[in-house]
Specification:
Strand order of the largest sheet: 1-2-3-4-5-6
Largest sheet: 6 strands, mixed
Number of domains: 1
Bound molecules: zinc ion
CATH class: Alpha Beta
Number of helices: 9
Number of strands: 14
Radius of gyration: 18 Å
Structural class: alpha/beta
Shape: globular
Helix content: 25-40%
């Protein structure tokens, strides 16, 4: 069995520890906040053995060297961006598979937010760590990639089983929902999700993880074939990649 311990840190990041008790292996997914990660390790009485980086941004890889110095852990990250991942030991990329303890981990290149962004799927556990590629009701900003690249990245996630639990790196759901509701106000799944998100946040609860099924039903960036959304963005007859690109532009200006 794999255990996932999540904890909020910085302004709106989530830190994650992934633990295989049988193998006594613990991975931090990215290193947003060293003190928060250390507190979480102490609280769980887990020893850090790995860091799995999704991309180079400082709120994802900024704590790598300090944690590696303190624990001697091994750092796994995107080979396409190895020079920007501090302390990287093992470079991975699209199609690679490795084991974390006894658990299979599959790697997918998802360029768009950054050119080297990768995500990690644990197919036998039905969980994935998607960094800043996908958020609940949103997706990452295109800092280093094109809309076409990001759309092709998101299609890799869309091929996963619907029940896959998606652990995103930020709590952005409420703000994302305000934008989503301008595009698909008639989408009943979105209306229900927004109410649930409102209640969760009012009670101080996270809205993450989400499921792929839920995002397919509600996330405007995964819905460029929705008739209502296509009309809302002014492209009723455009192909998905163009609808996606326009949706991203509208969100940037929202
Ligand atoms: Zn980022």
């Amino acid at each position: 069995m794999i255990q996932v311990h999540m904890f909020p840190c910085l302004k709106d990041n989530y830190g994650y520890l992934v633990h295989d008790a049988e193998a006594n292996v613990t991975a931090a997914i990215d290193t947003p906040d060293v003190p928060a990660i250390r507190r979480a390790l102490e609280e769980k009485e887990w020893r850090l053995t790995h860091i799995l980086n999704t991309h180079h941004h400082s709120d994802h890889a900024g704590g790598n060297l300090e944690l590696k110095a303190q624990t001697g852990c091994q750092i796994i990250g995107p080979g396409a961006d190895a020079e920007r991942i501090p302390g990287i030991d093992i470079s991975v990329g699209d199609g690679d598979e490795f084991r974390l303890g006894h658990h299979r981990v599959q790697v997918f290149d998802t360029p768009g937010h950054t050119r080297g962004h990768i995500v990690y799927l644990l197919p036998d556990d039905g969980i994935a760590f998607v960094g800043d590629t996908l958020f609940s009701l949103g997706c990452g900003r295109l800092f280093e990639g094109t809309a076409a690249q990001m759309w092709s990245s998101l299609q890799k996630l869309l091929a996963w089983p619907d029940a896959t639990l998606l652990y995103c790196a930020h709590e952005y759901t409420q703000a994302n929902g305000q934008f989503a509701s301008t595009l698909e106000p008639q989408n009943p799944d979105l209306v229900a999700r927004l109410a649930e998100v409102h209640d969760s946040r009012a009670a101080g609860r996270p809205t993450v993880p989400t499921t792929l099924a839920q995002e397919k039903a509600t996330n405007p960036f995964l819905r460029p074939t929705s008739a209502e959304l296509k009309i809302s963005v002014g492209l009723p007859d455009a192909p998905p990649v163009e609808v996606f690109a326009r949706t991203r532009e509208l969100k940037d200006a929202f």
